[in-house]
Q: What sequence folds into this?
């Protein structure tokens, strides 16, 4: 089998030299474990942070060892009664063709309940749950709020905007990195306004798109976007801090947001979060978002890259913003 | 009577030329109003912001008009039955020897229930309530937390540290601007550790003072202090953003905090607040802090400046950090 390893820690942007593809024997599952033939794997922005040798909320990837991350596959050998051969499972040992996992650490899913298996890595997976928890629990979204989401054509952002719309937002505004993406936000996902952050300063475009200000900002980007949002937020505005993709490859610390002190007078709440500490919301999330999916009221475009050997390029493309919606890699 | 007016808007630090003292007739109270002979007036850092011609949570001071702010005085003429002559009242029309106020907008207090009248501008007034609400409601302090407060020898900071101690903090750490102040924090107010921020980088001193990290940061200062606190905060840390005195006189926006994105992985909550929207907590605050005051478990030093004509210098001294505890001006 093939797996992708971290060849060297990147400084700044990762390159092809950051990764190596290796051949290794298919591992044997032990007692209570299953062997999974992976069908799709996820690439996510947070993986960039794990390439640095920095203590964070997850341990860093080790040089010479396989990367890991969300994946879905079929159980081909099982030493666990509750996860029989033929089950489809979501787990966290991607970047390889076969994975051995403890049965207790996989989530069995129903392939018939989703349009494609890959949805369990996106709209119906951690990506969708991140959008749900961040908007509703962290940013305390309520009906009538004006919502701004950055990286709005990305995996999380595109779900945030749709949940806001379906839950009764007054106005949903998104930023993205191309005219094609902003058209997608308005034409396909029902955003009220969208702008290309490369066209003009974010602050100017956001002010024009939000003449009555913003109540909730869902931040996937950091930097100028966060500063512009603080400037445009209304009294008692709320920010869900989910990601800062604009600065993941920066070598020097960012200058923005220089206006953070205005959070005092506007009584703004900024709250960082990781979806991992909110898994108790999975049942509510599956019920509500799954319902919208079945009734056709929510949609999720995916960008699918074929072949494990192309996973590094998929990840680099993700950091560049090449994807619309969830970026996944189809294996084998 | 005399009053202090805004002579010119300052750019950067205010100077003596920012203010003018003027003579004006003692005003006549109308129906439902009272005439107050002021005894003490408060100077507070937020007043600096109101000297700029910038829309904020309070309207800016007008050039040529008297300044205003918290004050306490004796009612000498009353056209309101519920506020008779001889009452002592807290109100918001300071910076003048006599004020006319609507009786509905003053708070009658009992001079016998406080060690000095000035306490109603400090420990038992908006200053103390700011500390109480910020620590308990905004930062969600809980027993066993390690608390760091900047501007700890100031009016709000010195109360924050003492409430944290009395409510069962594991460790209370304060920063201040002189060795005399840091001694006061430890010897008189019961802080566990204190450092002079002028001695060495805040981050280094805070790390040394908080070997197990910080759970709650009460920010009166902004800038380097806020950046250092974010760096030292533990998982699920909370920041009450109360003030940013380090940058009130800055002409250019500040660079810090450059590490704000680490609020994501540490799931930090930063929350700006103004005490004005939390006045429903006044009864709880008076009961708890008043009780500590009567039993001698909480104390509040004051820096008292004599004479309305010295109020501008008192305010400038406040911005420089000349005060220990609440800075008040005694009138007449």
A:
């Amino acid at each position: 089998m093939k797996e992708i390893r971290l060849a060297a820690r990147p400084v700044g942007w990762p390159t092809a030299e950051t990764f190596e593809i290796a051949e290794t024997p298919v591992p044997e599952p032990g007692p209570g474990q299953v062997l999974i033939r992976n069908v799709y794997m996820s690439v996510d922005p947070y993986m960039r942070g794990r390439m640095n040798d920095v203590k964070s909320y997850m341990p860093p990837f080790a040089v010479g060892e396989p990367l890991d991350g969300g994946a879905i596959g079929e159980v081909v050998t099982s030493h666990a009664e509750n996860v029989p051969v033929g089950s489809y499972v979501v787990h966290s040992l991607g970047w390889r063709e076969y994975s051995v996992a403890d049965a207790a650490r996989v989530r069995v899913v129903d392939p018939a309940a989703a349009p494609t298996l890959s949805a369990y890595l996106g709209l119906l997976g951690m990506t969708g749950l991140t959008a749900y928890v961040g908007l509703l629990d962290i940013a305390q979204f309520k009906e009538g709020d004006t919502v701004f989401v950055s990286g709005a054509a990305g995996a999380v952002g595109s779900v945030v905007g749709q949940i806001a719309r379906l839950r009764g937002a007054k106005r949903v505004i998104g930023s993205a990195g191309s005219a094609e993406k902003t058209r997608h936000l308005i034409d396909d996902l029902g955003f009220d306004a969208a702008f290309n952050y490369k066209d003009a300063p974010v602050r100017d475009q956001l002010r024009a798109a939000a003449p009555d200000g913003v109540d909730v900002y869902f931040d996937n980007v950091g930097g100028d976007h966060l500063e512009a949002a603080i400037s445009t937020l209304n009294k008692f505005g709320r920010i869900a801090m989910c990601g800062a993709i604009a600065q993941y490859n920066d070598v020097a610390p960012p200058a923005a947001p220089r206006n953070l002190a205005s959070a005092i007078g506007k009584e703004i709440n900024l709250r960082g979060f990781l979806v991992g500490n909110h898994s108790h919301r999975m049942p509510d999330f599956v019920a509500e978002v799954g319902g919208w999916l079945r009734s056709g009221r929510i949609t999720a475009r995916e960008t699918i890259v074929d072949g494990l050997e192309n996973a590094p390029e998929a990840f680099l493309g993700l950091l560049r913003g090449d994807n619309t919606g969830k970026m996944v890699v189809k294996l084998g």
Observations:
- The mean pLDDT of chain B is 95.
- Chain B has two domains: 2-122+300-330, 126-276.
